[in-house]
């Protein structure tokens, strides 16, 4: 989903190393429009979603494993997890272009791909309303469909404005702790500069933790001090965490969220994708947080 701050290192293969050695620089790096859009490899769930939303899926020759929506995308060859790519895997589909979300990695693999003769376009990731529109415009430009991208961006802008207005009148903002995982009884939570932080704010909530960016393992004292009203989690990422395990954690149990056993679980790609479905995700999260207080 492109939203984790950790880097997953993968083994570098002989072919990749050979490409690096033979091509120290690439004349295609920094391009904004693919010369040939016939076989594009899309890396990043939101990138793939945008291509489909533009009606340009005919250009796709492959996807990464975070690209699971729409369902039709699952028929494309999977070149691996976007943060654990191997150059050989991406190059095996013979793409005429690589369209990758910022944060794809590991860095060594991306550097290899950028040094090949295949145009590589990196799409910035900003966890905001405008960041979504920017993605749409960049993807549209890359595929040579600027006009269609402008139309889609306008539609999404209107939907996002509407979704954000739904919680504008709420005075008592709920404090949300986004829990990525529980490892050895320790909570890995989202700080600033994360997709989770961006979504919490767009849905009218307050991130219960601050003082750090990315994802960080929190001490019991820090969780108690954060005083979350609600725990937010992905419904389909990593080993499942039951309510009993979550609220059995002494530090979580000591918070208002623990006392009320209040947890919201939403599909990770939908919640954190920052793509064409984000307005709907904002609405769903806001309703889960505030119920009837959400205004249409």
UniProtKB/TrEMBL annotation:
Domain Fe/B12 periplasmic-binding, residue spans: 39-293
Keyword Plastid attached: no
Signal peptide as annotated in the record: 1-27
CDD domains for this protein: HutB
Keyword Ribosomal protein found: no
Domain of life assignment: Bacteria
Record key words, sorted: Signal
Gene3D superfamilies: Nitrogenase molybdenum iron protein domain
PROSITE patterns (UniProt xref): FE_B12_PBP (PS50983)
Record-annotated membrane-spanning stretches: none
SUPFAM superfamilies on file: Helical backbone' metal receptor (SSF53807)
InterPro entries per record: ABC_Transporter_SBP, ABC_transptr_periplasmic_BD
Name of this protein: Hemin ABC transporter substrate-binding protein
Native source species: Mesorhizobium erdmanii
